Delta-aminolevulinic acid dehydratase
Amino acid sequence: MSFPDIRPRRLRRTPAIRRLVEETRLAPSELILPMFLKEGLTEPKPISSLPGVLQHSRESLRKAAAEAVAAGVGGIMLFGVPDNANKDETGSAGLDPDGILNVGIRDLKAELGDSTVIVGDLCIDEFTSHGHCGVLAPDGSVDNDATLKIYGEMAVAQADAGAHMVGPSGMMDGQVGVIRKALDAAGHQDVAVLAYSVKYAGAFYGPFREAVESTLQGDRRQYQQDPPNARDALREVDLDIAEGADIVMVKPALPYLDIIAAIRDRVTVPVAAYQVSGEYAMVEAAAANGWIDRERVILESLTSIKRAGAQITLTYWAAEAATLLRDRY
Ligand code: PBG
């Protein structure tokens, strides 16, 4: 007998064989597109560190969201970017039914109804003058419990505006429980919580800060997680599920595939991942220099996130990837 007699290469020989044994297949419907709506714009405006991503006007948001849904994306995650004049110490524009985020949710609901899943980012960092995700205590630290009350009201405002889900991203202890109770008390039992359960205080959010015109000085290390720690992520997920999270999310995605995989093994709720602004910007910058094959890297990174265990991925490439995937199978 010749050696070797077991040859894995047999299953890689032709495109048809490879297709037959392919384990992980991306579908457009599992991709959520994060979008930015900027108060007062009449024309959409580019974000230099996120090439291809726009700060939208109300009109361009409706149009671009409808196009993304037509391309097959599964949902829209909306961020509001208020005028600087509307930022204050407590982020009150985030709760205002006429604040830019709630206006945008209402516009999306009017445009798309239940044909897609509309999610509001539930955090006050875009709306606070200091750029933190919570209100500040006199010593300058972020006051967890005072912030929770605000999150509860913000959730109700987003649900009133028509959000199918709210996405609490502020990493305050107890936020999912308070939001669930507030939604239920307001008659919004059917609005789901897509919890940013695991959110690392890393350096991958840089371009996002430009996208939302963040005023943050300093960092979020007192409330977001420390990158070296994995067990802390499991603890956060356990707590969020106990408090009523319907979907748990890990963020960022590609540098934290080990965390996604561990959580997938642990829970029975859907697991999502957020391929964040820094992940996007790295690929776009390398591609712009001709150093990588952009489309292949986009699909390979999304496939890897799914292979690790995320059944939903938030990505700024959602609409483009949906189009690339459309005629694949
Ligand atoms: C908080 C929030 C952030 C992102 C999503 N929600 C910023 C942060 O935590 O500092 C980052 C997303 C990205 O980088 O693409 N509202």
